C-alpha cells in the first residue's frame, strides 16, 4: 500500500469506502478512508464478496481494546479477512488459539525469542545480513531492495525456529505465496493452485525437520514444540506441523515489509536519512517509527464471544470484528503529525506487534534485525534514490512491497555507531 507523508485533504464518503478489496492496497492507499472512519464512523459494517458481515474498528482506542480483550474477542475462528468463514487451523495454532491453550504454547515458545536471547545473537544476525547485502550496494547499479529484504527475517529467526540456511531462499517465497496467492509475483497458477503448492512445500519441509528433531533435539523452536505440555499431553504431529508453519509465516511475511517501506521512506524523504546518519543513537527510535509507519499487518480479525458494546454500537455474539492496525498507527489522538516519518519520534506506542496476549512473540527478533540493518546501511550508504516503479502487494492483510528498485549512493566515510 502506498504510504503518504501528507494528511488526507478531502473527506472520503462512506459509500466509497471498501476495506476488503486487495486491489485498493496494491494500487492506492487506504489512509484517507481510515481517517474518514475514525472521524465519522469508528465502528463500521461492511460485507465480504461472499456476503459475510464484518465490523471495522479504526481508532487506536478501539483497536487496542479489541486486541487486548481475549475474553470477549476470540482468535480461534480466524484472524484475517481471507478466512472470514473460518480457518481450518482454528484452535490448533498459537495465533488461532484462545486461553488456556494459547498460554500453554506461548509461554514455552516465547523463551526461544526472549529479548535477552535475541540480543545475544546480534552479531550472528549481522553476519547473515552482511552476506545478504554484500555485492548489492557497492556497484552503483539499481538493486531490488524488496527482493533483497525477503531474506531479512530468516537472518533474524531462521536458526531460532530451526530452519537450515539452505532452505531460506525458498521458504520465504512459499510463505509469501501462502499469504498473497493472488499476487502476480507469487502466483503459480490459480489462487487455489498457488495455495496448494505453497502449503505442500512448507509442510513437506517442516515434516522433514520435525522428523529430524524427533531423532535428535536441538536448541530451537521445533524442539520446544515437540516437548511442551499441551493441556496435559504432547502435541500430535499435525499440531506441531501447523505451529511451525504459523511461526514461520508470522516472521517471514512482516519484517521484510517494514525494511522495504523504511528504505522507501528514506528515498522519498532524504532529510530523514540525513538526520539518522548524523545521529546513529536514533536507531532504536527509527526502528520503532519504521514499524509504526509500515504497519506490516493491516488488520487482525476477531469474533465476539458474547454481546459487546463498542462505542455506540452493540454487537451480538458471533460477529466478526476487524481491528485495523494500520489505521490505529495513524490516529491523530495518539500520534502527533502521524503522517510524517520521524526517526526521532518519542514516545511511540505503535501497535505493529499487536497488543495483549497475542502480541507478536517475534517482536524482539524483528527489532534486532531491523536495528542491525540500519547500522549496516548507515555505515555503507549516503542516500537512496528510486530507480523505477514501486510495486505493492495484492493483499488486504499484509502491507507489502514486491519490487523496490533503488540506486544506493555509497559512502567512503566512517560513521560512528552507538
TrEMBL record:
Ion transport keyword on record: no
Ranges that cross the membrane: none
Range of residues in the leader sequence: none
The entry's keywords: Heme, Iron, Metal-binding, Monooxygenase, Oxidoreductase
PROSITE patterns: CYTOCHROME_P450
Keyword Heme: yes
GO molecular function: cholest-4-en-3-one 26-monooxygenase activity; heme binding; iron ion binding; steroid hydroxylase activity
Protein name stated in the entry: Cytochrome P450
Species, as recorded: Saccharopolyspora shandongensis
